[in-house]
Amino acid sequence: MNETFMATDPTHGTILFAHGSRDPLWRKPIEAVASHIQKTAPTQTHVRCAYLELTLPDLPTSAAELLTLGVTSITVVPLFLGVGKHAREDLPLLMVSLQASYPHIVFKLRPAIGEEPQMIALMAQIALA
């Protein structure tokens, strides 16, 4: 199944996963990405935000919410620029736990967004502007 199809499949959900912060304004860019997805994708697109720490909801809560909508597959997109301990160690453990809790659901973990060639090119373009 290709990414374009999955993004518009009503049985597929996407979770934007970020670190979290005590500062409530910190989450605004993450939520802006989710809002942009909802505005530009078909109405049956299911997207949620989740945070590792200091901010709610956490990953299990967001996954459970998507499951109540009837999704059968979930892609987790780590909104990390770099691949530190959280992306290398913490997130894979959370994914193993999710899969164990919901063995009937297909989970996919994308690379950290900062590793995506499109994001690297976009950041370079912004820096040069």
Brief account:
The chain has helices at 3-8, 28-40, 59-68, 85-101, 117-128; strands at 12-18, 46-51, 73-78, 106-109. The protein is α/β, with parallel strands linked by helices and 129 residues long. The protein has a single domain (3-128), classed as Rossmann fold (3-Layer(aba) Sandwich), CATH 3.40.50.
What does this structure look like?
- It contains 5 helices and 4 strands; from the N terminus they run αβαβαβαβα.
- It is of the alpha/beta class and 129 residues long.
- The chain has one domain (3-128): Rossmann fold, CATH 3.40.50.
- It has a 4-stranded parallel sheet with strand order 2-1-3-4, with helices on both faces.
- The longest helix has 17 residues, at 85-101.
- The protein is globular, with a radius of gyration of 15 Å.
- 22% of the residues are buried.
- Mean pLDDT is 91; it is low at 1-6.
What is the CATH topology classification name?
Rossmann fold
What's the shape?
A: globular
Strand content: 15-25%
Structural class assignment = alpha/beta
CATH class: Alpha Beta
The profile of the biggest β sheet is: 4 strands, parallel
Low-confidence stretches: 1-6
User: Please, how many helices?
Assistant: 5
